[in-house]
Specification:
With 393 residues, this protein is an alpha/beta fold. 38% of the residues lie in helices and 11% in strands. InterPro entries: AKR2_Oxidoreductase, NAD(P)_OxRdtase_dom_sf, NADP_OxRdtase_dom.
C-alpha cells in the first residue's frame, strides 16, 4: 500500500479507503440478531482483507443502515492505534439531534472516539446554514472534538462546486469528501481550494458514481486498454497529488484485488495514461463533434434557474457518456434518479421539456437552439423507471 499525508490532519492515509456502504445487510437500523451470520462473516472478512493489504481507513456513516453496528463486531478486534475510522452525520435543523446521532454511531462502532467525523451532505444553502449557524451542527462537532470523541472534522458533499468551495473557504474543516474522477472533473476547482486550506481530499465512489466501472461497456474496456476502466480511473485520480485517497465500496474481500493493480503503476502514471486519455477524447470527438465536446457546457443554467427545474447540465453530460462510450446503463441509472435524489442529486428529468420555453435560460449557451431537442433525445434514450437513492431503498 502507498500512503499520502492527509492534509493538516497529518494522518498517513492509504491511497485507497474501505468505504462502508456496500457490505452491510440493510439500509435501515435493525436488531443485531436479525443480521444473517453469512453476511456478518463476509463483512468481517472484507475488513480483515482491507487491513491485511494496508487499507486501514474504514469509512462509514450513520445513514448507512446496519453498517456501523456490524463494524462494531470487528473494529474492536483490530489494533486501534493502526486504524483510521471515519463516520459521518448529516446536518440537522436541531443540533442536539446531530449530537444524539453521533453518540449512536459511537455506541454502534464500539469505539471511544473516531478519527474523522464528517458533516454528511453539505449540499446546498440549507445544509450549509444548519452546519454554520451559531450553535449549529459544526459547534456541536467542536464540542465532541473537545471531549476527545473526535480527532478531526470534515465534510462530505454532493453539492455544486460553488457550495463546496464556499464551505472549504470558511477554513473550518480538516478534510473534504467529494466527487471527482475522469468522467466528471467539475470539482477540480474545489480540490484546488482544499489544497490552499491544506485539507485532506477523499474521493467518493470513483468506481460506482465514476461510471459503474465494475461492469463497464465493451467500448470503454477497449478504449482503456491495456488497463481495465477501473484501474485507469484509479490511476487517473491518484496521478494528481492533490488527491489523497479513493473510496472503494467493497462488498466482498476480493473487491480490492483489481484496484491494487494500480499501485505498481503510479510511478509511470503519466506515460501510461496519456495514450488512453487521447483515445477517450478522440472517441468523444468522433461521436459528438469537436465543437460540442469543447463547448457543450458553456453558459448552461443550473436547475434552479431552469423552468421545471430540468437539470440541463447533468442530462447533457449523461447523454454525452451514453453516446461517446456506450455508458447507457450508467447514464440510465443516474438519469432516472433525477426527481428522486433530493439535495443529493437535485433537479428534474427532461420528460416534460416540451411544456417549457427554455430559450431565456439558454441565452448564454452557443447551442441554445438545439439543446431542447437534445434533451428530448436524451429522455427517449435514458428515460425509464424512477430510481431511488440507496439509502431510501
Amino acid at each position: 500500500m502507498q500512503y499520502r499525508r492527509f492534509g493538516r490532519t497529518e494522518l498517513q492515509m492509504p491511497v485507497f479507503s474501505c468505504g462502508g456502504m456496500r457490505y452491510q445487510y440493510k439500509w435501515q437500523d435493525l436488531p443485531q440478531w436479525q443480521i444473517p451470520g453469512d453476511n456478518q462473516r463476509n463483512l468481517e472478512a472484507t475488513i480483515r482483507r482491507s487491513f491485511d493489504v494496508g487499507i486501514n481507513h474504514i469509512e462509514t456513516a450513520r445513514g448507512y443502515g446496519s453498517s456501523e453496528m456490524q463494524l462494531g463486531k470487528i473494529l474492536p478486534k483490530l489494533p486501534r492505534e493502526k486504524l483510521i475510522v471515519q463516520t459521518k452525520i448529516s446536518p440537522q435543523p436541531d443540533p442536539k439531534e446531530f449530537c444524539r446521532q453521533f453518540h449512536q454511531s459511537l455506541k454502534f462502532l464500539k469505539l471511544e472516539y473516531v478519527d474523522l467525523l464528517g458533516l454528511h451532505g453539505i449540499n446546498n444553502e440549507e445544509t450549509f446554514q444548519q452546519s454554520f449557524r451559531p450553535g449549529g451542527c459544526l459547534d456541536e462537532a467542536r464540542k465532541l472534538q473537545a471531549e476527545g470523541k473526535v480527532r478531526f472534522i470534515g465534510f462530505s458533499t454532493h453539492g455544486s462546486t460553488q457550495i463546496i468551495i464556499k464551505t472549504i473557504e470558511t477554513g473550518q474543516f480538516d478534510y473534504v469528501n467529494l466527487h471527482w474522477y475522469y468522467i466528471n472533473q467539475n470539482n477540480w476547482l474545489a480540490i484546488e481550494a482544499a489544497q490552499c486550506q491544506d485539507m485532506g481530499v477523499f474521493i467518493i465512489s470513483p468506481s460506482d458514481k465514476g461510471g459503474k466501472l465494475y461492469d463497464p461497456p465493451q467500448k470503454l474496456v477497449q478504449l482503456c486498454q491495456p488497463l481495465s476502466p477501473m484501474v485507469f480511473n484509479d490511476l487517473f485520480c491518484l496521478s494528481h497529488p492533490q488527491v489523497h485517497t479513493l473510496s472503494l465500496g467493497a462488498a466482498r474481500p476480493s473487491d480490492f484485488d483489481e484496484h491494487l493493480k494500480a499501485l505498481s503503476l503510479l510511478d509511470q502514471a503519466e506515460t501510461i495514461l496519456s495514450p488512453i486519455v487521447e483515445r477517450l477524447e478522440q472517441a468523444a470527438i468522433a461521436t459528438l463533434g469537436s465543437e460540442w465536446v469543447r463547448t457543450w457546457n458553456v453558459g448552461l443554467p443550473n436547475y434552479e434557474e431552469t423552468p421545471g427545474k430540468i437539470n440541463i447540465p447533468v442530462i447533457l453530460w449523461l447523454r454525452n457518456l451514453a453516446l461517446a462510450y456506450d455508458m447507457v446503463e450508467y447514464a440510465k441509472m443516474r438519469y432516472n434518479l433525477l426527481g428522486n435524489g433530493g439535495h443529493w442529486f437535485p433537479g428534474a428529468k427532461a420528460d416534460r421539456v416540451k411544456q417549457f420555453n427554455l430559450q431565456p435560460c439558454l441565452k448564454n449557451s452557443p447551442h441554445a437552439d438545439k439543446i431542447p431537442d437534445l434533451l428530448i433525445e436524451a429522455d427517449h434514450l435514458l428515460g425509464g423507471q424512477a430510481v431511488q437513492r440507496l439509502s431510501r431503498s
